[in-house]
Design brief:
heterotrimer, A alpha/beta (about 240), B mainly alpha (about 350), C mainly alpha (about 290), A: about 240 residues, Rossmann fold, four-stranded antiparallel beta sheet, 10 strands, globular, C: mainly alpha, ABC transporter involved in vitamin B12 uptake, BtuC
Chain lengths: ~240, ~350, ~290
Amino acid sequence: MAILEIKHVSKFFGGLAANSDVSFEMSEGMIMGLIGPNGAGKTTLFNCITGYYPPSKGEVIFDGRRMNGLQPDAVCKLGMARTWQKVRPLAKMTVVDNVMVGALCRTNSLKKARELAMEQVRVVRLDHRADFLAGGLPIGERKKLEVARVLATQPKLLLLDEVMGGLNPAESEEIIRLILDIRKLGITQMVIEHDMKAIMRISDRIVVLNSGEKLAEGEPQEIVSNPDVIAAYLGSE
Amino acid sequence: MIPTNPLHSQRGASAVQVSLGMAVIAALFAFPQFVESPYVLHMMILFFLSTLMGQSWNIIGGYTGQYSVGHAAYFGTGAYSTMILLTTKEIAPWYGMWVGIAASVVLALIIGSICFRLRGPYFVLASIAVAEIVRGTALNLTDLTKGAEGILLTDMPAFKIGQTVITDFSSKVPYYYIALVLALMIIAVTWLVQNSKLGYYFQAIREDQDAAHSLGINLTFWKNSALVISAAFTSLAGSFYAIFVKFIDPSTVLPLDLSVQIVLISIIGGIGTIFGPVIGSLVLVPLSEALRSNAIAQGLINSGLVSEESGIGIFLKEHLAHAHVLIYGILVVVVILFMPDGVLGYFRKMTAKKKRGEA
Amino acid sequence: MTFSVLMQSIISGILVGGVYALIGIGLTIIFGVMRVINFAHGDIMMVGMYMTYFLFTLFGIDPFLSVLITMPLMFLFGALLQKVFINRILGTLPQNQILLTIGLGLIMSNTAMLAFTSDYKILTTSYSSSSFNIAGISISEPLLISFLITAAITVGLYWFLLKTDTGQAIRATAQDREAAQLMGINVKWMSILSFGIGSAMAGTAGALISPTYYIFPQVGSAFTLKAFVITVLGGMGSIVGATLGGIIIGLVESVAAVTISSDWKDVVVFSIFLLVLLVKPSGLMGKSRM
């Protein structure tokens, strides 16, 4: 059964279409790669799915439920969580406190939240930084913190917006391993990524956006050999 | 390399800290048994009141990051509710204050539902506008508030349990204890907030509203919760002020200056910390009182720096008291430019630096 | 209420609104270039009022003529404020910027109180209360003169911002600080310049209303609030908006005073302000920055 259905989603800003008529489905447990040149509307689509913008047209159906019009906090409570392309650490709170904020989505007890948070901090291998202020972490660790924080909300579906952006190869490799670990936990993931090699390695399927429209969808091998995709990428470079 | 969270160390208070706190509280309760000077008691009461006001603001401004510059609205609502009920309906203030709290909470929810849709400077401006509307209304609803003339309290009822008179409020002592309990209460409430889900959610909202929203935090609900707590205690401060000073008018309990002063208590001490408003009050109350009572002008003359007969001496004696708000201005400029984390944060940083230097 | 009373209040509303516009333009230029909301704006205006008062009482310089002295002096005053204080907090939390300007405002008003006491001062000129009639509607002479001067200054400012290189550099900085910097514009200098211009506008407004208004140290805060209402109404950062906003607020105050009651005019103004913040926070002429 599809955990997420995107049905003919369009988003207009003024007269400009940032997304137009995008449709695809995700089945449970998979990793979906979402790629496309800059300005293709990937982050806009994330925002439409997670309640930051209401879609101008179309529907987002998550777990059999229509999500249109729900606020981001409600979306999160229903089990869909997202990270931010530009990381948003709660700077004056410690790493573990950051993750606790996520965990408090599921519990009212600080003790319980702290346990849940420490668990996730270990999953992303930040335990040695648990009591450090989030604002002081280097970029690689901020990205991991971002992931730990959303994991603590116990999502069924995770939307990762360029979690490898700005990282060196060693750090990217760690994130790739992390994404694969998360899959083992049974969490479905949608990943926006610019690093083609990485996205080909981790994705089960890939959706390509171009100028707000869905250009292609398929398994990684199909995508690399798709002439439209090649043209779009070459054209944009 | 990276400093740890200064708040973090406060979470689990050590046994030494707890016993020290207990000793201070005990000393404060015993204080009026040893000191009878009404002036000293008066100063202490102002200090407690300032702590109450500052800490109340701290919950919405310091922890939640919503800089309301309109808290005079709640202070005035508390003061007016209590005073009107007392002078016209002879309802004792310990009942009237609840009406004040209820009215302030309703007002807070109205303000919250309007202003919390706005962020940053727009929120600040909206909070000011609402407070000015409240002030204008109080000024013009003369049937209820007596307008600019103000309300004078002539008969303070005695507080009785059964037939026993507990106090008739003839000295400063009962006010001292009420103010002390109120100050301790708001500190306890802040501690509870900081050590619960509320504290985490409030701070998350302060740090990044969008991130908080994406982590399942209903912004409207939690911001309004913070404002309601803050407004209720600010209203209580207003109720207390009314029966303590026994006179209120729109220019003392509802002006923009008061809203600004409420903000400064926390800012100067250090926002988002339990002791910030206490430190802020410790700095501000004596300073502004020293100016108001002409102690500074007199001190300058006594120390021989300024001759009493000189033009400057006469001038200072005559005018410095009127300009006591000047100190707020100078302090806030100094604090913002040189200690953006407040006095408390500044000294923490200094000690942290020292420690690192020694290590 | 007769038709002529209404007409009269409309005309005096527009005349007062011109001065309001000047205050609003000052605030909006400062906000546009530096994204700082200047809570000391009314107090800067108060400084201009006292300056005018003393130029008149000590040297007998006519308040309207004294604009020629007040304006450059207030420009320097504002530029100095920016260089010494405001410049240090650009790019920090907006709350800190607000508090700093509040602090500066408190220092100004209380220093004025220390120096000149809190007594109300009145600047009485030969024409302070003179007026003339047109078709049965009396028009206050000082208000009309100040409106004409305001109009001239506003036109001059528009010309400066639209036609001169410096003016265009200021507008470019307001539009996109980073891009302006990349284009080689000295952004720091533009900030100093615009705070100077903003202060000069506020000070001039102070000079222009001093023949018709009480002068006292606390006069500023009411005008600071009014300036916010005007600029938000017009759209933060929009000079056309501030001009319009000033005239609208002048009109609303004046008409509310005769149709409702003069006691309630502030409540009416702030209610409109809230309404604008809610319905269209970007104002009449501005783009939303929310």
